[in-house]
Design a protein that fits this description.
14 strands, 596 residues, 4-stranded antiparallel beta sheet, 5-stranded parallel beta sheet, Gyrase A, domain 2, 22 helices
């Protein structure tokens, strides 16, 4: 039984024995005591006044006296208006620390009915390398997978690669026309960068053709449709869809260049998947669903033979599902892929990590699957919507080559970490290889944390220099704190201090109980973050936690403490602090150093 439930049971006993009334769990509101007041947990007495007719202050005092006398974990109390602040006994805190300081599963949950969740993230196009926007997507998806696993769910991490369509054909056509047989090897370039180069080249040449047609009297709209390059790209797409051998072979070769490039980026970013789907293999799956629903009268067909779903009764509009020529749209593809995953995994939820510009798309997807097609599992569709990542210079545009490339950004962050770390002298005697690993850990940690600490729903501005600040709300500060704790524990080991045994401690200070309370809250933070699909809650908790440890470290002697039990208590407290920092950062996909 946890302490909150123990206190709740004592309050129920109070109400029953002293006032002959029964209280429900939801009427007993316990929360951490605010920093400006003494206490560890606070009872809000106002909800109890409906059943126990007393003034809030009198009721709080009466409950406080009862708990102090009848609950062995309560040492003292104070009342602030209708709020009862309760302080735990030193024995409670000693027992808590003894039980958990070496428990690497602290904050991990085991669900009696664990949900199975299919989580989709990344979903890149094979016509360009990954960029800063993809980084936010991947970091959110991967961190969420770890968070949900720690909460006790079974998570299947998936990636749907958009490897077909007109945008792919644009890169292919530009390579055919202007590539002269160039390969990643001959260009000494990652394959995804090479393909991205030709995607930009297509756009440059395409715009030139449009300008020429406009000069000849065409409107801009007509010119964009009649430019020779776009017509050739459309023809290339038709050849691919018809299975033309030469076209398909080129498509396979160029896509493989991209996959090889993606793999390098994913590895450095620390991102993994359990299953990768390819649009070229799934895009036709939805066609059968749509045609079957049309035959059953669920969907309607217009004169041009296109098939639509009417969602006006749901407050939306009509949605195109098959074009007049029978080709599918993104919605068709997602219908088919969702059904495939439902059959493959029998999941309780399907979570899609996709930018907020697709909010409407996923509202429609869920409505069609659940309300129109009657799939029970369709109700489990959840769109983890997130905002854009912007730069001081403005929005990124792939076609114009103005994106921040993911590989370049990671390299720049590692270089910036090296520069900053050496300037500050925050490095011990490292060998060169060991030093590089540290710079990589700091640089990539800074990138990941800066992105993940922001509420996913918000747009954000990425500032590389601000992300590496050893005194701010950054991974660097948290990593340095972990290294500091590790140094303390190493010194204790070098001095042969055995802190495995701990008897009761009678003189725990207020700053220590405040820090213990922060540790105590960790499982609740994990639960709240998982329920809200928000790694940001973990990130900001871990930062506040690191700040609390540093306050404790600066105000309380640890290794200089002469009383053996108090020394053991503080070392156990430090050991558990390191474990929670490491665990919180693990959820975010960030490593922490043992020394700096």
């Amino acid at each position: 039984m946890n302490i909150k439930q123990d206190i709740s049971n004592s309050i129920k006993e109070f109400a029953s024995s002293k006032h002959s009334t029964e209280l429900l769990d939801n009427e007993i509101q316990l929360s951490p005591t605010k920093a400006e007041f003494d206490g560890d947990t606070t009872l809000v007495c106002f909800p109890l006044l409906r059943k126990i007719k007393m003034s809030p202050e009198a009721l709080a005092n009466e409950i406080g006296e009862f708990l102090k006398e009848n609950n062995e974990n309560i040492a003292d109390f104070n009342v602030v208006k209708g709020f009862l602040n309760l302080s735990y006994t030193n024995e409670f805190w000693s027992n808590f620390l003894n039980k958990n300081f070496n428990n690497d599963k602290y904050g991990h949950f085991t669900q009696t009915e664990a949900q199975k969740i299919v989580l989709e993230y990344s979903s890149p196009n094979t016509n360009k390398p990954l960029h800063l926007g993809h980084i936010r997507n991947n970091l959110l998806g991967y961190s969420l997978s770890r968070l949900l696993k720690q909460y006790g769910y079974e998570v299947i991490r998936t990636n749907l690669v958009n490897d077909r369509g007109i945008h792919i054909c644009k890169s292919m056509l530009a390579w055919i026309k202007y590539g002269n047989g160039e390969t990643p090897e001959s260009a000494n370039m990652k394959g995804d960068h090479l393909i991205g180069k030709y995607y930009v080249k297509f756009d440059v040449e395409y715009k030139k053709e449009i300008e020429e047609l406009i000069k000849k009297g065409m409107s801009e709209e007509e010119a964009s449709k009649q430019a020779p390059l776009i017509l050739e790209a459309q023809e290339l797409l038709r050849q691919w869809e018809a299975g033309d051998k030469e076209t398909v072979e080129l498509w396979k070769k160029m896509n493989q260049w991209v996959y090889d490039g993606f793999d390098v980026t994913y590895k450095q970013l620390g991102i993994e998947f359990d299953k990768i789907y390819y649009e070229s293999e799934t895009y036709e799956l939805g066609r059968a669903i749509v045609e079957d629903a049309f035959q059953k009268g669920i969907f309607t067909q217009r004169e041009d033979k296109s098939i639509w779903c009417d969602l006006t009764d749901e407050g939306l509009d009509e949605k195109l599902l098959l074009r007049s020529d029978g080709t599918s749209v993104y919605m068709t593809q997602d219908l088919g892929t969702a059904k495939l995953r439902a059959e493959e995994f029998n999941a309780d939820k399907m979570v899609y990590v996709v930018g907020n510009e697709q909010n409407y798309h996923f509202d429609v997807l869920k409505l069609i699957l659940h309300k129109k097609l009657g799939f029970d599992w369709g109700e489990g569709i959840y769109h983890m919507s997130y905002g854009m990542v912007e730069l001081p210079s403005g929005k990124m545009k792939s076609r114009e080559g103005t994106v921040v490339d993911a590989d370049d950004l990671m390299s720049d962050m590692i270089a910036l970490a090296k520069e900053t770390t050496m300037e500050l002298g925050k490095i011990e005697d490292f060998e060169s290889e060991e030093a590089h690993k540290l710079y990589e850990m700091i640089g990539l940690g800074a990138l990941k944390y800066f992105i993940l600490k922001v509420d996913p729903k918000k747009n954000m501005m990425f500032d590389p220099k601000q992300s590496i600040d050893f005194n701010g709300n950054t991974a660097s500060f948290i990593q340095y704190t972990h290294a500091r704790i590790s140094s303390i524990l190493r010194r204790a080991k070098d001095e042969n201090i055995d802190f495995s045994e701990l008897k009761g401690v009678s003189n725990i200070s207020k700053i220590e109980t405040e820090f213990l309370n922060t540790i105590f809250q960790y499982p609740e933070i994990v639960a709240e973050a998982a329920k809200n699909y928000s790694p940001a809650l973990i990130a900001n908790y871990t930062y506040e936690f690191a700040k609390k440890f540093n306050q404790f470290y600066h105000q309380i002697p640890i290794l200089r403490e002469s009383e053996k039990d108090l020394l053991s208590f503080r070392l156990k407290l430090s050991s558990m602090a390191a474990m929670i920092i490491k665990n919180g950062m693990w959820i975010l996909g960030i490593d922490v150093p043992e020394k700096m």
